[in-house]
Each structure stands twice: as structure tokens, then as C-alpha cells.
Design goal:
The chain is mainly alpha-helical. The protein contains four helices and no strands.
Length: 84
């Protein structure tokens, strides 16, 4: 693994882990009053686009990070829709 890939994996890990506390908090409390539906909708679409991009260029850091982030963001988005 070269330095560029290492930076990609570390950055992917950090940005993905950043969503775990929000997803867990939303799941446990069902309090989504501070969550913006338009923002999470657009964000989820953007993350999905990055996932597709990662697949097209065969970049595992991009694929893994955005795959996991997409699942977490969609979980929060679904909770928001359900409890709106």
C-alpha cells in the first residue's frame, strides 16, 4: 500500500466514523427534530453518487467509505421520514 492509498483509507475511515454517533443517537432516541430532511436527502444522493464513482474507478477507499456512509445516512433519513 502506498502513501496515497493510506491517506485515502484513513480519510475514508474518519469521514465514515463521523456519521456513526448521529445514526446511533437518532436510532436510540428517535429524536430527529434537529435533522434537516432536504439536507439529508441531498447528502444521501451525493454519497450515492460518490459510491457509484468509486465503483467506476475501482477505488476501494471511496467504495467502502461511501457504501457505509450511504447506509448510515439512509437509516437516519428513513427514521426522519417515519417520525416526521
Amino acid at each position: 500500500m502506498n502513501t496515497t492509498e493510506l491517506i485515502g483509507y484513513i480519510s475514508a475511515l474518519l469521514t465514515t466514523l463521523a456519521f456513526v454517533p448521529q445514526a446511533l443517537h437518532s436510532w436510540k432516541t428517535r429524536d430527529l427534530s434537529g435533522i434537516s430532511l432536504p439536507m439529508y436527502g441531498l447528502f444521501s444522493l451525493g454519497v450515492f453518487g460518490w459510491l457509484i464513482y468509486g465503483i467506476l474507478i475501482s477505488s476501494w477507499p471511496i467504495i467502502m467509505a461511501n457504501g457505509i456512509t450511504f447506509i448510515l445516512a439512509c437509516a437516519v433519513l428513513c427514521l426522519k421520514l417515519k417520525h416526521q
